[in-house]
Amino acid sequence: MAATGPFRVLVQAEEGAGAAAVDAAVAALDAADRWLVEPLFPDEPDGDLQVIVLDPAIPLAPTQMFDLAATVAARPGIARAEPDLPVTAYAPPGAEGGGTPVGAFAAAPPAPPTPDDLRWAGRGIDVEGAWALGARGQGIRIGHPDTGYTPHTLFGPGALDLTTDRDVIDDDDDARDPLRRSPVPLARFPGHGTGTGSVIVARGDGTSALRGIAPEATLVPLRAVNSVVQFLDSDVARAVDHARRHDCHIVSMSLGGKGFFGLRKAIDRCLDEGMIVMAAAGNHVRLITAPASYESCIAVAATGRDDTPWSGSSRGADIEVSAPGSGVFGAAWTLDGTPTEHTSTKAGTSYAVVHVAGVAALWLSHHGRDALLARYPGRMLSQAFRRIVARHGHRRPDGWDTSRWGVGIVDARATLAAPLPDPATLDGVGAFAAAPAPGAGPAPRTGAERIAAAFGELDAAAVTARLASAGIASEEVTDRVAAEVLYHLMTDDGAAAGFAADTGAGAFAPTWPQRLRDRGSATLNDAL
Predict the structure, then answer these.
(1) DSSP code per residue over 196-251
(2) Nearest to 367 by CA among 128, 124, 139, 123
(3) Residue 9 β-bridge partners
(4) For residues 24 and 75, is the Cβ–Cβ distance under 8 A?
(5) pLDDT in tens, 144-185
(6) Which residue would you say has higher pLDDT here, 1 or 295?
(7) How far apart are CA 96 and CA 65, in angstroms?
(8) How far apart are CA 14 and CA 30, in angstroms?
């Protein structure tokens, strides 16, 4: 079975210890008979990554969850443990850019858009120039963890693979979006997966109809979230792993949260098998959300119709490239009365990342994925794509800030026309990194590096100085409490603002450390 309860702790056993070590750790806990242990990845039942599913009848506050994880981590044979907690770190973008809020529904279908309206985003990345080279994504499969799919005219024959789709939330093989509204703000984004997926693979039905960036590629819908704002990372990790096990070539994630090491591991497994993985940077928050904040994942920011960065987009040094994301047309439904399909404009980094996913599909089909994989085995294939986008496959408007918005705006034709890099030059995790040999994977991040990745304009040294000013002075302690510190910074905007503004020199109001103390677990307060 897959975890369905809302209270989960991810545990990594020491190498070779496997599920037995986690079982022993749980057996030592109170109420252990009401909790169960199951593998994070179904193809590794005795693997080192296991999930403790807690009895929902015994609800725990987030601070209690962190204390529980610390207790488990202290047991023999356990390398680390971390709660799987949702955070509101990917705010809804609203109607900025002249569109309906992401995932929302218009009261009635708007007036039909003009062909110029429908095509501006594709023109902005020269997709027709790429199509002229013969590539339309044929033969390429894109795994799409999101809210699922809803049938829509824009999804013509072959657009969706409904034989390997998966609903991770309900643990079944039907990824259809239930299209349920909720009275709770941010709780649901019905139709989001349909809108984002259509930007990649919409087939269109005439000269003026909307077409996706890769209109001959195939989307594998994966219902992993009820909301792209709040979700459980273990669900997304399982969806990503499902994409890997069912022969997807790309994973595109229009979602963002805190992230944890299980999701990072799922992405690394994809890269090792020659997949390209990317994610939206985040909306209306000061943070780069996970998984975009992972160095193994391509982080995409959003621009508008005038080629300027979208004001709601997350930004920072870890952004690799930008793409149209404000005022982008996609498939949509009304929910007032009889559901009615139509197209409407969307805004958010959700719609930027799917443009880059479409370009990746065009690139793979242009050169032939099998030929590329033979030339660039394993994670080198993703590195080759990132290198080309970074050096050739973009255009850079006047005044572009590469320190915050990546190399520029992705250019589909330039990406396909670029020379393939020498495999001997690809020895890093990303486009430019000098890291382990291909296939070795990235080195584990320190706690300070993990926090810095979320605060895109801070480096690990700046984070270390801030934590030291609050009393967390050693790397070992930082590593132990980093997950909780990041959780509180992502769920307390006041603490995040103070943390981002703190110079680390002592000339600041001690608001954010006090807010952490007030909200922190016993484990964190011991460190502080």
Answers:
(1) HHHHHH---SSTTS---SSTTSEEEEEE--S-SSS--HHHHHHHHHHHHHTT-SEE
(2) 139
(3) 52, 83
(4) yes
(5) 999 999 999 899 899 999 999 999 999 999 999 887 665 444
(6) 295
(7) 37
(8) 23
- Looking at this protein, which amino acid is placed at residue 111? A
**Residue type at position 366:** H
Residue 113, class by beta-carbon neighbours within 10 Å (0-12 exposed, 13-18 middle, 19+ buried)?
Answer: middle
* Contact present, 325 and 142 (Cβ < 8 Å): no
**136 has a pLDDT exceeding 50:** yes
Joined tokens for residue 125: 């990345």
The residue type found at 156 is: G
Report the pLDDT value the prediction gives residue 103, as an integer from 0 to 100.
37
Q: How many residues does the chain have?
A: 528
The answer to whether 314 touches 349, Cβ cutoff 8 Å, is yes
More confident of the two residues 487 and 355? 355
Question: CA torsion sign, 353 to 359 to 363 to 366?
Answer: positive
Residue range 387-414: mean pLDDT, rounded: 96
**Interior CA angle at 371 toward 366 and 373, to 5°?**
110
Answer yes or no: is pLDDT of 518 > 80.
yes
Phi, psi of 259, deg, nearest 5: 75, 155
Q: Which two tokens stand for residue 43?
A: 């193809």
Q: Which of 88, 83, 64, 86 is nearest to 496 (CA)?
A: 88
Tokens of 215: 């209109």
Q: How far apart are CA 282 and CA 289, in angstroms?
A: 6
If 0-12 CB within 10 Å is exposed, 13-18 middle and 19+ buried, where does residue 310 land? buried
Contact 221, 160 (CB under 8 A): yes
CB 488 within 8 A of CB 516: yes
CA distance linking residue 239 with residue 527, whole number of Å:
35
Distance CA(263)–CA(516), nearest Å, equals 25
CA distance 91 to 213: 26
Q: How many CA atoms lie within 13 A of 501 on its CB side?
A: 13
